[in-house]
């Protein structure tokens, strides 16, 4: 597991997994100071091209690395990730650091405490070097906001980094850090992971606390519907190498006094046998979405052929209700939690839609276009009584029953994470239904994982999504490792 010290100055150093870097720190072949310095230099390079960093933590990271190195040299007990740099989403919150969530209304706010999941990584010895850029108030599948600006893909500058945790996905994909922490309420970990060709996990409901991120942030913790909304969200890891996933999940999972949705801890135990069943789901498109690209369709076929060659039973399955995935997600959030996007975008204050429209015409918008437009449509729907949403709830129930029946053990569902590779900037304005592939599993509470397929299409990474039954993360993580070995996983960007 150890690595020669000579690698500490090479461009390839942080391309290793977090697990391997931590092992190198423990056995003395790697220096936390060198790791952090290399991470900072790479962040600075990537920032000039992609604008992935919202808040640079470079000075405090250097100080933390010096402490970590002294602790190692003095024989102190070391955490599982001792001395390894990482990043996490700006909106999760690091105590006393900016916490704007990309909103002009919050541009002077700082975090009152560090998010629980992030603090657990820090307690395990990991060193935060940056807070990643995000979509404004985490309300859009593209990372853009009026405070920090837009983040672009490291593979093609004219393509989106995804959202809302897009900045951290870029930092991981570009080998600035080996892993990062984002949040996922409709695909906000898995969509950026797909856009940037890395692994992104949304854990099962009740496993990883959201505390620190809205709605369980400084303002939201006192709101009566905060727990109901948070039930459909989760913090989750982003990483380049599948071997990091079980370690990261074991660290960040577990009960938290502020997030009452969290019931379980996680101890990784590999499945006792090979995968028994793979359900292959390949719709041509979802409602309000774009058509699946040939590259994604081929990747799904390759997943099926891989498992067939290992004796796994492969069955094509396309439930009719999947076409309404976006509407089902929206219906559950509106009908069962009472969430209002205007409350989120306005940070508890009214959103002046006409004033924003005028400011946008003058080139000085108060909000990013996507989140603002979503808020306008949400408010309009409320005025009209949200017609048609109630009839989506039985579809959710039937789909959950069908999935849990099929994914009752050592089985997974394979389907797109996105219909194509990283889309052009602004794509979500035309095809909002594309998030249905990921958002559906937030309201179903099932674990879902984006898996990079070791190939590019028109210069951008190709990925698929795997879904397992409730609490079946070991099956997902084992499948991720199998596909990584078979197809190569992450591909470095061209700079």
From TrEMBL:
One of its GO terms (cellular component) is endomembrane system. Gene3D superfamilies: Amidase signature (AS) domain. Pfam families: Amidase. It comes from the Bacteria. InterPro entries: Amidase_CS (IPR020556), Amidase_dom (IPR023631), AS_sf (IPR036928), FAAH2 (IPR052739). Residues 35-477 form the Amidase domain. This is Amidase.
């Amino acid at each position: 597991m150890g690595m020669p010290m000579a690698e500490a100055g090479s461009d390839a150093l942080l391309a290793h997994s977090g697990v391997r870097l931590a092992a190198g720190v423990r056995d003395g072949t790697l220096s936390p100071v060198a790791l952090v310095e290399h991470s900072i230099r790479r962040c600075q390079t990537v920032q000039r091209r992609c604008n992935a960093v919202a808040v640079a933590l470079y000075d405090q990271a250097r100080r933390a690395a010096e402490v970590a190195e002294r602790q190692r040299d003095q024989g102190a007990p070391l955490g599982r990730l001792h001395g390894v740099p990482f990043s996490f989403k700006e909106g999760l919150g690091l105590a006393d650091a900016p916490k704007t969530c990309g909103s002009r209304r919050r541009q002077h706010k700082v975090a009152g405490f560090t998010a629980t999941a992030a603090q657990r990584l820090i307690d395990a010895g990991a060193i935060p070097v940056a807070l990643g850029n995000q979509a404004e108030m985490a309300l859009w599948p593209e990372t853009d906001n009026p405070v920090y600006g837009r983040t672009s893909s490291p593979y093609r500058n004219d393509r989106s980094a995804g959202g809302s945790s897009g900045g951290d996905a870029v930092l991981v994909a570009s080998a600035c850090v080996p892993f990062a922490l984002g949040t996922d309420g409709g695909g906000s970990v898995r969509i950026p992971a797909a856009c940037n060709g890395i692994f992104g996990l949304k854990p099962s409901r009740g496993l990883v606390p959201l505390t620190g991120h809205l709605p369980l942030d400084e303002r939201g913790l006192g709101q009566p519907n905060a727990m109901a909304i948070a039930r459909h969200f989760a913090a989750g890891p982003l990483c380049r190498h599948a071997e990091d996933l079980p370690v990261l999940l074991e660290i960040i999972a577990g009960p938290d006094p502020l997030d009452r949705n969290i019931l379980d801890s996680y101890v990784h135990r590999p499945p006792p046998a090979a995968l028994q069943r793979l359900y292959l789901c390949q719709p041509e498109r979802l409602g309000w979405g774009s058509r699946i690209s040939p590259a994604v369709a081929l990747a799904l076929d390759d997943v099926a052929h891989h498992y067939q060659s290992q004796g796994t039973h492969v069955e094509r399955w396309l439930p009719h209700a999947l076409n309404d995935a976006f509407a089902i997600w929206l219906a559950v959030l509106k009908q069962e939690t009472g969430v209002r996007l205007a409350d989120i975008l306005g940070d508890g204050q009214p959103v002046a839609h006409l004033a924003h429209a005028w400011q946008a015409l003058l080139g000085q918008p108060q909000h990013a276009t996507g989140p603002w437009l979503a808020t306008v449509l949400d408010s309009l729907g409320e005025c009209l009584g949200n017609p048609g949403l109630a009839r989506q709830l039985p579809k959710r129930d039937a789909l959950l029953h069908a999935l849990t029946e099929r994914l009752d053990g050592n089985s997974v569902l394979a389907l797109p994470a996105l219909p194509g590779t990283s889309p052009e900037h602004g794509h979500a304005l035309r095809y909002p239904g594309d998030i249905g592939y990921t958002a559906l599993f937030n309201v179903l509470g099932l674990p879902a994982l984006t898996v990079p397929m070791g190939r590019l299409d028109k210069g951008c990474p190709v990925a698929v999504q795997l879904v397992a039954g409730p609490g079946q993360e070991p099956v997902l993580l084992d499948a991720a490792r199998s596909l990584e070995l078979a197809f190569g996983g992450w591909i470095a960007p061209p700079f």
